[in-house]
Amino acid sequence: MQPFSPSALEKIPALAKLLADAAAARALENAMLVEVPAQTTLFRQGDACDNYLIVLEGSVKVFARSEQGREIVLYHIDDGGSCVLTTSCLFAHSPYPAEGVSETALKAVAIPVRVFERALEESVALREFVFNTYSERLSRLITLVQQIAFERIDVRLARYLVRNAGQQIGLTHQNLAEELGTAREVVSRHLKDFESNGWLQLGRGRIEVIDAVGLQQRIDLLLSQ
């Protein structure tokens, strides 16, 4: 970690308003800058939570791992975002229940827990940012749980592909399985089915959707059954 310059927030609109709040600005003056390369483990299950983290540049993958080693991606954190599990752990003074890994080179600001707690009491702007981010991420997590519990895996896979249509998806079948919380073999079987219908083209470590309309029609058909 190294000293952090609060002016770095100016280029992120969602964070710039923190600089105008005196209590938030004081907290940021006591923060540290975190810079790590891609594929760095930021926290593991059971680790203590000592800082409130805000991503400035890059992406973080937060995931849970079963005793058998299977992973499911809970969410990704991009520029200007924070981690709902970090917030929850700071509030409850509990350890992390999942893991976080940088997907790209990462810059983040780390506010020490005691500084964060004091600033949260004093700063309206920081409270709004923390709770708005927390609520949004929690809502997405609830949606994820509902999808896993109640939706077919082929529907969830097709939806993921439709959302990312128009670009080459640089993910392996294993990566997709982790995103969706299922087995690689299941993903591979459905991808081959989609390819045989002419909706996508598979390559080594990449997937290209060539008929998003056809995929959406499959989704609509499956949901109507």
The strand order across the widest sheet is: 1-2-8-4
Please give the share of residues in helix. 40-55%
User: What is the terminal separation in angstroms?
Assistant: 54 Å
Radius of gyration: 20 Å
Number of domains: 2
| CATH class (first level) name of the largest domain | Mainly Beta
Low-confidence runs (pLDDT<50, min 5 residues)?
none
**Largest beta sheet, briefly?**
4 strands, antiparallel
CATH topology heading of the largest domain: Jelly Rolls
Number of helices: 9
The CATH homologous superfamily of the largest domain corresponds to Jelly Rolls
Q: How much is the average pLDDT?
A: 91
Task: Label the overall shape.
Answer: elongated
Q: What letter string, H or E per element, gives the SSE order?
A: EHHEEEEEHEEHHHEHHEEH
How would you describe what is shown here?
The chain is an alpha+beta fold. The protein has 2 domains: 1-147, Jelly Rolls (Sandwich); 150-222, Orthogonal Bundle (Arc Repressor Mutant, subunit A), CATH 1.10.10.10. It is built from 9 helices and 11 strands. Keywords: DNA-binding, Transcription, Transcription regulation.
Quick structural gist:
With 225 residues, the chain is of the alpha+beta class. It has two domains: 1-147, Jelly Rolls (Sandwich), CATH 2.60.120.10; 150-222, Arc Repressor Mutant, subunit A (Orthogonal Bundle), CATH 1.10.10.10. Helix content is 46%, strand content 23%.
